[in-house]
């Protein structure tokens, strides 16, 4: 099964995929930093991870059975989400699946931006995780600061909004909600499995 982690942001999703038995994994992100971290982890742990840099809006290298990520769609504004979904569908086999989460919590179309305290806590957590794993802390600290300074979320309101976003591109195969402590605060997310139309 060809699997792609698209927009990894860190090594947690590739690690989880490996833990459930996915041996050959492709990992893509627009930013080189998480790809360097993934390569470091893969080399250290002898994982067979292939990384490559790409921008989902200009296309994804390869065709996959499954594409997986966490909160990826949340990062795109409302006008761009359908374009992203179409690019993902174009990179899936005919019976392919897209497994993801998307933030719930409509704010009248206004984006969610972390406040200063949330940004400081995010960087502190990233540095702590890097230290525990022997990853160079200085590089992680700067990367975390850069990442959180640019982080903007565009949540959706409900399942109907998701259906409209997916219309003609994907069918919703499964959907549920989960409350989790995300990068900055306790947040409700939809957990979604989409099937290519």
How are the SSEs ordered, and which strands pair?
Elements: E1 3-6, H1 12-19, E2 24-29, H2 32-45, E3 48-53, E4 64-68, H3 81-90, E5 92-103, H4 116-133, H5 137-150, H6 159-166, E6 170-181, E7 186-196
Parallel strand pairs: 1-2, 1-4, 2-3, 4-5
Antiparallel strand pairs: 5-7, 6-7
Helix pairs in contact: 4-5
Could you please describe the fold and organization of this structure?
The protein folds into 2 domains: 3-103 and 156-196, Vaccinia Virus protein VP39 (Rossmann fold, 3-Layer(aba) Sandwich); 114-151. It has helices spanning 12-19, 32-45, 81-90, 116-133, 137-150, 159-166, and strands spanning 3-6, 24-29, 48-53, 64-68, 92-103, 170-181, 186-196. Helices cover 37% and strands 28% of the residues. α2 (32-45) links the parallel β2 (24-29) and β3 (48-53). The longest helix has 18 residues, at 116-133. The chain has 197 residues and is an alpha/beta fold. The protein has a 7-stranded mixed β-sheet with strand order 3-2-1-4-5-7-6, sandwiched between helices.
Q: Which key terms come to mind for this protein?
A:
alpha/beta; Rossmann fold; seven-stranded mixed β-sheet; 2 domains; 197 residues; 6 helices
